[in-house]
Amino acid sequence: METILFLAVVIFAIVVFAFTNGFHDAANAIATVVGTRVLTPRQAVILGAVTNLIGAFSGIAVATTIGSGLVDAHFVTTGTIFSAMVAGIGWNLLTWHFGLPSSSSHALIGGLLGSALASARNNWSVIIWSVKEVNPTTGHAKLQGLLPKVLLPMVTSPFLGFLGGILFMTCLFAVIARMRPRTVEAVFGKLQLASASYMGWAHGFSDGQKTMGVMALACFAATKNGDLDRLPAWLHFLLTPRFEIHRWVIWLCALTMALGTYVGGWRIIQTLGRNMVRLRPVDGFAAETTGATLLLAAGKMGMPVSTTHIITTAIMGAGCARRWSALNWRLVERIVWAWVLTLPATGIVAYLLMATFSTVFPK
Fold this sequence. Notes:
With 363 residues, the protein is mainly α.
């Protein structure tokens, strides 16, 4: 039963990460609606928590990519997952302390890659770099793996968010050019309720699935041990010996992340909603609509893109559509450095944890 006890510890660590994900990334869903003062902070976190919860039940494509499309599951143990979670939790708390909107998604992925490499004793083939999968029914081929699903989107999504924010805001300028400022504030104050809900849903749809994939991978890793055959029937049902996103996994991860969003990470909300650029309701509407649409498209393709990267750059783009000097460029530089360091930092920490404690972790 040692494996089961350790699995319980690992699942708890994943739950803690899911909570810090919601806590850390609450700004992604509600920073703009708070920054524009359309909603009070407490109203915003309630809206964000509810829409996050709904979004987390809307698909499993991203969860499947995280759980089975990035590393070879045969090398993954519950210790691998535990090391990845500890690294990710540590990074989330560190960047929250400094009020930096870094990517929880990339913290999770970096931790998983680093710990998997240690589990495989430095065998780099444990990382699925790029493979072509052909649908036997339709004959359509698609690329899977770290390069097409994570690294390329990691580079392109911030540019798409920034460009999309500028273009959409420019189009809105043409719409509001002859409107009175008071009318613009009133109209887009109401429209931002819809765009904030859309963004909250998209955040749940994207980020909620990532912890689901890791939890499913942890359960699959535990089934490789023979002592699971002695489990009660009901528990054995929860841990079937194949990779599968169980309903209980979806509920647990969705509820935990929604709770984290409700608590809210106010330092990061302050950074995105007020310190980086001064937002009006029309700017918030443009940023949220752009960010949510990109997240929806990426999620449908099973790409675990960074919600933080997309909404942050969409806010930057909406601000720059007015004038480039609207942005706090010194703060932007700090944010970008946090983005660059996330994958290698969490990967190294998780690798060292797994390498150090591999003799303690169950096989």
